[in-house]
Design a protein that fits this description.
Distance between the termini: 26 Å
Structural class: alpha+beta
Number of helices: 2
Strand order of the largest sheet: 1-4-5
Radius of gyration: 13 Å
């Protein structure tokens, strides 16, 4: 299950491409926990995908800016 209509589209594309994914799976790095929208596992590799919807909304933009700053501090 995903939260938004846009994330349904992303999940459907990942399914069609046969890419294993997990939705909002906690990611622990250096004692901090992050919640990326999608954790992808494909051909033995892991990637993280954030769906950035509605960045024109000031609250969404502020939330993303904070999350992005946290991600930038972490080398994965």
């Amino acid at each position: 299950m995903v939260t938004t209509k846009s994330e349904v589209f992303v999940a459907n594309i990942l399914d069609k491409m046969e890419i294993e994914y997990y939705y909002e799976e906690p990611l622990d790095v250096s004692g901090k926990t992050y919640i990326p929208d999608f954790t992808l596992r494909y051909q033995g590799k892991t990637a993280y995908l954030e769906h950035l919807g509605m960045l024109r909304n000031k609250l969404n933009k502020k939330h993303w800016d904070k999350k992005k700053a946290n991600y930038k501090r972490v080398v994965i």
